[in-house]
């Protein structure tokens, strides 16, 4: 038996080295990993709530790998967008999400695909978690016909089922989100709407109008403030008389959540979703997070904050590193496995970028299409009176 | 039955309470030979909403005072009593907020009617109308529809002064992605509002407060539950050979009154009721100009960049230009914020004499 095993392992090893390929898969079997582990997560500061989310989160190996993969894909996708922007293949607005991955992934883990989500312009991460492929996202950024909005929308206007963008006007998405929640209540389908906005938008009047109506009518709306400390170039201290964003809902209960820990975000979102589904009305979550990039690609991001600050967050609180360390130190995954995933992701991003740069731009015939929905073909005036363009919906 | 018929006959003559009409409408439809029924614009709008609320459970109405107050101008009278809190929603005074909420609900597949107490207040919410509603279908390449209606009174009223008297036809008419209608009479109001509610796209319905109480005859066809007027089609209200008068909303009535006076002097005006501001039915105007060779636009709004200005530009760019014997004339509101004193207010919007004066000028009389 021993000879048999030696013989087999020799063959395998020999076979592997003949191809020159590294041994795929670790030498440890699946059974060697812990299937799950329980982690202590930070307690949330509460506003008008007696009880908050649990302070312990259960993470299965499967979930951990999924969250890791999703966050890493998002990270690499945003970095690829950075690269393409610097090569001038992406133009206009490009607001990158790297650093904030735990928010998007944690939220998605805490809700159902049948729930609804709307956010502002820093939307690429959510577009991905809501089901659009990296390929379609990058192709939309490069303005090609294979983009999720056929190249018509760009960075800030990507849509998917139960994902309502991508909105360019700061704060305008919040009443929209309350309206989506109204529709959930109206239809009685037990769905909730996650409505996101930033620390900058938190001072918009229409947000307070939305708070009032959502609370008045008990709409199943989870308002989430992604506080990344800066509204464009203005720090929170310089913009808000009160930086306790989770309390700004006043009569709406709130919680302050560590937005760099995917598990904390997940548990808080589950808590919030349960709250809304029970008919108690809206709830507010503040996610403390950080963006590595500037406000957009035209902002280097270092005139209003120090490189040291950025570096400190990267080294101490990076969401992807934190999850990776947790999993490895609890024997839930191996370094090789993680590296494999990274390689796969890199490949996926490369292929997507390849598509996004080679796919043709939308045809000029598409220029006037989709002005209306479900409408017979019509004529649209071009740039001069003789230019009569066709529009179909 | 015959006593019912005679009581109905009595009702069609003279003044009657609007409530009676709505209650007896059903009976009226079942009777064989009927007369034209007098319906106020207010009731026409009310009936249209009532019928559409009944027809499609996704339709709902929200706005200030629309429910328990029966509507600031009583346009939604009786609807809350019939349909309840879920479908007729009183909002706080938060235009930007509730307009956005309405748009969000439309994105999720409901069919909201968002009432602005007057369109002056829509300026608070105009970002939601334009950026969230009008542009979304295009930006999403057809993925996300917004089947919403924004309605309310537009333009000058009586004695409400500058901040409450602006006409927004040109502002909303400017934007692709929106449809904009402006009914004049009760049939217009019914048919256009029903079309707007059934349309899968954002429609702005510019009503007129001074017209709410005016009664018009509505045909049997016009009273049917599926009566709709196509958006984008103008109507020739009165045929004529000498000059074309194009107008929308309340001014259509002024044009018809002016036409009646001019007819006595042998001048036959063709009066066109635009019904829709966007898309503009240029073909109907052109066909008329080919016949009459003279065109006058009449509107309540300000002249610069207005509805009349657009019509002038389009006529010049099209085949009808060659048929004009004189430049197109615009009769518009005076280029000032609306004053309060009655004599000043009366002289701030086109009067019948202004239309008559312009007709005679263009005909060189």
Word description of this protein:
Chain B: Keywords: Carbohydrate metabolism, Glucose metabolism, Metal-binding, Mitochondrion, Oxidoreductase, Potassium, Pyruvate, Thiamine pyrophosphate, Transit peptide. Chain B: It is an enzyme of class 1 (oxidoreductase). Chain B: GO terms for molecular function: metal ion binding; pyruvate dehydrogenase (acetyl-transferring) activity. The complex is a heterodimer of chains A (393) and B (365). Chain A is of the alpha/beta class. Chain A has one domain (57-359): 3-Layer(aba) Sandwich (Rossmann fold), CATH 3.40.50. Chain A has helices at residues 2-19, 61-86, 101-110, 124-129, 134-141, 173-187, 205-217, 236-239, 262-277, 307-317, 319-329, 335-358; strands at residues 36-40, 45-47, 56-60, 116-118, 193-198, 221-227, 230-231, 234-235, 254-258, 283-288, 378-381, 388-391. In chain A, the strands form four sheets. Chain A has a six-stranded mixed β-sheet with strand order 2-9-10-6-5-4, with helices on both faces. In chain A, strands 1-3 form a two-stranded antiparallel ribbon. In chain A, helix 2 packs parallel to helix 12 and helix 5 packs across helix 12 (335-358). The longest helix of chain A is centred in the N-terminal third of the chain and has 26 residues, at 61-86. Chain B is an alpha/beta fold. In chain B, 39% of the residues lie in helices and 16% in strands. Chain B has 15 helices and 14 strands. Chain B has helices at residues 2-12, 18-30, 41-55, 79-83, 95-107, 126-134, 136-139, 169-173, 186-198, 220-223, 250-263, 282-292, 307-317, 342-346, 352-362, and strands at residues 37-40, 59-63, 88-90, 111-115, 149-153, 179-181, 203-207, 215-218, 235-238, 243-247, 269-273, 276-278, 295-298, 329-331. In chain B, helix 3 runs parallel beside helix 9 (186-198), helix 5 runs parallel beside helix 6 and helix 11 crosses helix 15. The chains are: A alpha/beta (393), B alpha/beta (365). The interface between A and B is large, with 49 and 44 residues.
């Amino acid at each position: 038996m021993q000879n048999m095993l030696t013989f087999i392992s020799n063959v395998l090893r020999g076979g592997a080295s003949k191809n020159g390929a590294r041994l795929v898969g670790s030498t440890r079997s699946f059974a060697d990993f812990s299937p799950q582990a329980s982690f202590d997560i930070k307690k949330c500061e509460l506003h008008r709530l007696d009880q908050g989310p649990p302070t312990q989160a259960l993470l299965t190996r499967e979930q951990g790998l999924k969250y890791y993969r999703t966050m890493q894909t998002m990270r690499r996708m945003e970095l690829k967008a950075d690269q393409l922007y610097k090569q001038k293949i992406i133009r206009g607005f490009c607001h990158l999400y790297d650093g904030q991955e735990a928010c998007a992934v944690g939220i998605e883990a805490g809700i159902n695909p049948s729930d609804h989500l709307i956010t502002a312009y820093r939307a690429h991460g959510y577009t991905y978690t809501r089901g659009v492929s990296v390929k379609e996202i990058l192709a939309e950024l490069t303005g090609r016909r294979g983009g999720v909005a056929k190249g018509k929308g760009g960075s800030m206007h990507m849509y998917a089922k139960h994902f309502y963008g991508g909105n360019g006007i700061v704060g305008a998405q919040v009443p929209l989100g309350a309206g989506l929640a109204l529709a959930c209540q109206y239809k009685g389908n037990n769905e909730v709407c996650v409505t996101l906005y930033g620390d900058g938008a938190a001072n918009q009047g229409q947000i307070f109008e939305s708070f009032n109506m959502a609370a008045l009518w008990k709409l199943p709306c989870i308002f989430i403030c992604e506080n990344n400390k800066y509204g464009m170039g203005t720090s929170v201290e310089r913009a808000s008389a009160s930086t306790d964003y989770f309390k700004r809902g006043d009569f709406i209960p709130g919680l302050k959540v560590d937005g760099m820990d995917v598990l904390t975000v997940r548990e808080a979102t589950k808590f919030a979703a349960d709250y809304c589904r029970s008919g108690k009305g809206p709830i507010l979550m503040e996610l403390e997070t950080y963006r590595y990039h500037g406000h957009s690609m035209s902002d280097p991001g270092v005139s209003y904050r120090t490189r040291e600050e950025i570096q400190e967050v990267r080294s101490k609180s990076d969401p992807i590193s934190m999850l990776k360390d947790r999993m490895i130190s609890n024997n839930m995954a191996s370094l090789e496995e993680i590296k494999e995933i990274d390689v796969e992701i890199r490949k996926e991003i490369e292929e997507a970028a390849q598509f996004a740069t080679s796919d043709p731009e939308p045809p000029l015939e598409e220029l006037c299409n989709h002005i209306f929905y479900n409408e017979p073909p019509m004529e649209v005036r071009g740039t001069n009176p003789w230019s009569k363009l066709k529009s179909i919906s | 039955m015959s006593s019912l018929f005679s009581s109905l006959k009595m009702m069609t003559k003279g003044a009657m309470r609007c409530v009676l009409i709505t209650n007896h409408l059903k009976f009226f439809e079942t009777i064989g030979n009927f007369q034209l029924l007098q319906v106020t614009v207010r009731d026409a709008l009310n009936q249209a909403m009532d019928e559409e609320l009944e027809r499609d459970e996704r339709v709902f109405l929200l706005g200030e005072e629309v429910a328990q107050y029966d509507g600031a101008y009583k346009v939604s009278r009786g609807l809350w009593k019939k349909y309840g809190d879920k479908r007729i929603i009183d909002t706080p005074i938060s235009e930007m907020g509730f307009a956005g909420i309405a748009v969000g609900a439309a994105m999720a597949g409901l069919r909201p009617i968002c009432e602005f107490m007057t369109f002056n207040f829509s300026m608070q919410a105009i970002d939601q109308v334009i950026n969230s509603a009008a542009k979304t279908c295009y930006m999403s390449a057809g993925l996300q529809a917004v089947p919403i209606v924004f309605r309310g009174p537009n333009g000058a009223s009586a004695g409400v002064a500058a901040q409450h008297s602006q006409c927004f036809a040109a502002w909303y008419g400017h934007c692709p992605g929106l449809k904009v209608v402006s009914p004049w009479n009760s049939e217009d109001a019914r048919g256009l509002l029903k079309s707007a509610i059934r349309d899968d796209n954002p429609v702005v319905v510019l009503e007129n407060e001074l017209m709410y109480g005016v009664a018009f005859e509505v045909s049997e066809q016009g009273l049917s539950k599926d009566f709709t007027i196509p958006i984008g089609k103008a109507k020739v209200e009165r045929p004529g050979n000498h000059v074309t008068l194009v107008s929308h909303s309340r001014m259509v009535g002024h044009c018809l009154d002016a036409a009646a006076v001019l007819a006595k002097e042998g001048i036959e005006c063709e009066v066109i009721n635009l019904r829709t501001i966007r898309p503009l039915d240029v073909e109907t105007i052109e066909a008329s100009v080919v016949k009459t060779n003279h065109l006058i636009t009449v509107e309540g709004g300000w002249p610069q960049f207005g509805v009349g200005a657009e019509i002038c530009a389009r006529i010049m760019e099209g085949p009808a230009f060659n048929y004009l014997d004189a430049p197109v004339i615009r009769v518009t509101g005076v280029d000032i914020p609306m004053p309060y004193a009655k004599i000043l207010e009366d002289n701030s919007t086109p009067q019948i004499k202004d239309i008559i004066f312009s007709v005679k000028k263009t005909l060189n009389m």
